[in-house]
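Entry 14. Ran structure prediction on the chain below.
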Amino acid sequence: MRVGVLALQGAFIEHEKILKNLGCETIQVRKKEHLKNIDGLIIPGGESTTIAKLMNEFNLTDPIKHLAEQGMPIFGTCAGLIVIAKEIVNSNQPRLGLMNISVRRNAYGRQVDSFETDLQIKGLGQEPFRAVFIRAPYIESVDEGVEVLATVDEKIVFAREKNFMVTAFHPELTDDNRVHKSFVDLCNKFHNSVDNPQ
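Output, structure tokens:
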């Protein structure tokens, strides 16, 4: 199992630590050749406009879209959620536009409005997940086929569609690895599938 973490900007090292604890080999993705032979990709938190622009500059956007079309799992956290979304409310910023969701940037306010809360997450058991929100977006609407996995005050903060998974919070900033484990499970299925281009 080899999982890439987009390492152009943002909190990618914390994702790597959790993946390694789950037994995955990791690679920091900065060039398109780093995308070879990976079973999944995490797009971390950071600044979504900067991440998307750098992806274009480093010629990563089209290769990532191509892998996504082949079924490779992609997990976006916070800014990564925005980059993966098809629609960003009141914004025409660059994006991958992969997942049938509409998101609102900085929906919870500025850095000082960051917060933590316990989430009940569908499929992760009864024990709540302590979620860290930092200048977080939320998902305003989803199309048919998108599964909502968690909400805060009726706002969607965790969703999945086929091989795409997104959180408005930062699961890499806790000791609870259940969210990453669910992504690794997706990567395992892709690793063993006939659609895997490796």
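The mean pLDDT is 93. Will compare against last week's run tomorrow.
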